[in-house]
What does this fold into?
Amino acid sequence: MATSVSSACTDPDARLMLQVKEGSQAAFEVLVEKYQGPLTNLIYHLVLDRAEAEELAQEVFLRAYRAASRYRAEAKFSTWLYRIAVNLCLNHLKGRRAGQRLPLEDGFAASEAERPDLQLERRELARLVERALDALPERQRTAVVLHRFEGLSYREIAQAMDCSVEAVEALLGRAKASLGRELARYRGARDT
Amino acid sequence: MTREGRSVVDCNTVGERLSACLDGELPASEAEAVRQHLAACAACARQYRELEEVWQAVREITPVGPRQPLWPALEARVSRRPAPGMPLRSLLAWRPFAPLAGVALAAGLWIGAGVGKLLWQGSAAPAMAEPGSSNTDSAGYFGDIPPGTPAARILAVAQAPGEAGPGGRRP
It folds into this structure.
């Protein structure tokens, strides 16, 4: 159990979760308050619906609480929590029929073609990239959000997504390439 | 080829590794090889800058948080059930159980004492079951249990004042 001890010593959230395992609701409240933002954000970018994201975030926390007795602090608490979230969301998305997936509000290139002289501001670019991000396949999107928003390493993402580090590298590489193409299309439309 | 052992020499190989290099996920030697290639190859260097820009733009996306704190609704849900690993003492003191804990413990001891008596009658004292015995007389249902037997010890615990359990306090 060397890894368990090590994680519990270095990760304060893992120590809190061990307190939850002993029956402390106060410790769980601290964890909920700390992770409700990142978790909702992750889920939002997976399911693309805010109300649904909030409901699923609650469900993730509830599952984490119910699983407290099995928690062993072998990895960072955040990785463990995100793994629950990713599994829940991917199963949730499987349950959706293809036609139920929320469409993008408008086409990236088409909307920009209407405003070719618009100056590219960072904020606007971020908004456009967000649309492109939301159009990525689910697993690419998951990897991007875990890496860019939550700051997880490739190894931690692999743990959260139950895949290899090489698979994470491939997912992120493909995601960047797709986002890069959207960016290039945007610039092409803007510069014409 | 392993991640550590791959030789980075041509544009195709560099192109495959640019993303991991940007994320700081390459081993030092490989990252250095990529940097050297980028210094000498304008096309790959441009591709790297584009990736950087994309990644920076993703970081600029405003995170979406919950509109209301999640804890109040969650608290109601987790309070309806104990954590699965909760020890017995905490479980008895757990809020929905607390008022009943003492009563349940006393009832359990009382039932246990009754079962103990029946077992004792059936095996250790057959004479007690004969007609005219004092099993049900005014001395009380348990009044004729010989001292020192297991049933007598259980009964003593059940009848002792102030032994009814944790009393429903939360820890």
